[in-house]
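ugh ok so i messed up the first submission bc i forgot one of the chains. this is the corrected input, ALL of the components this time, i swear. 629 residues overall. if the numbers dont match what u have on ur side tell me asap before i send this to the collaborators (the ones from the other lab, u know who)
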Amino acid sequence: MPVSKRLMEHAPAIDAPPQSLADYKATGGYKGLEKALKMEPDAITQMVLEAGVRGRGGAGFPAGRKWSFVPKNTGKPIYLACNADESEPGCFKDRQLMERVPHLLIEGCVMACRAIGAQAAFIYVRGEYPQSIAALEAALIEARDKGLVGENVMGSGWACEVWVHQGAGAYICGEETGLLSSLEGGRGYPRIKPPFPAVEGLWSSPTIINNVETLANVPVIVRDGVEAFRSVGDDDTAGTRLVGISGHVENPGDVEINPATTTIRELIEVHAGGVWKGRKLKAVIPGGSSVPVLPADAIDVPFTYGAVKEAGSLAGAGGVIVMDETTCMVDALMNLMQFYHHESCGQCTPCREGTGWLEKLVTRIWSGEGSERDIELLDRVADTIGGAQQGKTICFLADSAVMPTKSFLKHFRDDFVKAVADGGSPVFKARRDRHAKTSTAAKTGTAAKTGAK
Amino acid sequence: MSAPATRTPPTAEEIAAADGRATFDDLRPHLDTLVARYPARGAALLPVLWHVQRSRGWITPNSVAETAAYLEIPKAHVEGVITFYTMFQDAPAGREVVMVCKTLTCRLRGAQDVIDALEDHYGIHMGDVTADGKFKIEAAECLGLCDMAPCMLVVDKARYGDLTPESAVKSLEERS
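and heres the new structure output, hopefully the right one now
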């Protein structure tokens, strides 16, 4: 099976130190920037547009098109914000990229700044990634020292600064306008669009927000050319994709693939060593926890945006979560609803209250107190609270709770019906029985409280 | 199993001890370099709070007032930000903060057993500080270490993966 590595081609092993500037340069590093500095900025945007690279943070919006929305000559400064707030359950590819090839991201940031006319980039890294921050900070020291970042980039007379900004634990800051609110020093509240960030973002100035992996593709595109870039993937998903595979597999980890020729089944069976313990597959969430779950028989599709969508889900942010035949889907959904309820920022009533309702209903079913009616209600609440596109909520967090809920009920309704009939999820009953034996007070399925607040 | 986490307000002694670890003037030189990165002073709030927390152990009431004055923003705004983000500590938080992941991938691979073992070993509930004051241990939403599930993070310092109930306890004991 062909493996087309580009971003991670020369990446050091997972536990090795991050790639140094010298090693990065020895393998073509900063050649893209050198070339870009001799180009008209619009020509860089044009190349990225023609390459067709789509946003790797989940939404899949074409990066070149996004860049082209930056208004010219407003007199305001322009900013680049790199979204490294990788918080989607099941996703860890951006962390791998930052910690193994930090210069690739830095070069991508500087080149993107050049293209859109920005003189400063902020890399917003989630607070839980101190090792990623350390790798980037060390690489930035090297890059500043060699004049690749700073007052006079590669002797061109053009100035560009790159700063690392540490988040402090909030999933919603991965939503692009929530990230802007956080970067400005506030709570990570998403903002109503329009105005879109490209027109009015950080400090009311034009701002482009791109995911780590998206920006890491920019040096490759400019260095090797559009045609070479498009030789991997297809028209729908150009270039490689970094995918993390986790859950019930033998060898969890991340891999760079040709999305046009690699199926979800291959990701699991070839790249992750198959379902663990010799068990059978039950379900796969292919793109991070917010996308619809797929049943075991729906995974013979290539990992392109289009093919996964046709199969009934989304390739999203490239986080494949695998669940084996022993998984209780009520338990899995309860866990996800705890997550979305906890992470709802609270601005919009349908999301703040609705995610709480979803959590309560699925917990009731899980703990044997549910009825058939609760299953219907779960479905109905999901229908009621979703729909950012219909203007019900500012951002897509509620929809991110709805997609798993609807799809779990669609494909695995039997698990819910069984939990209602049998007095709860098998996970609940096992915990109850164990606690009865040790005569400890019964606890809830997970720790009673997440975090201190 | 101890009683559920009780969140009594910090004592005057605890506040004085944290504030005594560094005066705000001690912190200023580094804070000035952070503020210089942003076109607006208030944007440095998160990096400033991180530095204050690392220097004092947690963000004391005085720290809130000093940070607000330093960044020329309302105290209420600083408090609002601290309570929004899970990694900012507004009460004594032990010598190290341990975040144990509880989200789906980790749960599929045994996170609940890890959480149970840590609660039993230290006689605490998630979110409590251990009796010896060494750790605040809390259950956390996805840490982005799904390839190492089940996992835990010692904030700013270390991460542990492929945990078993035994290895989780041993890993923390070895930090003591």
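quick check: Chain A touches chain B through 65 residues (CB under 8 Å). that seems consistent at least. The longest helix of chain A spans residues 397-421.
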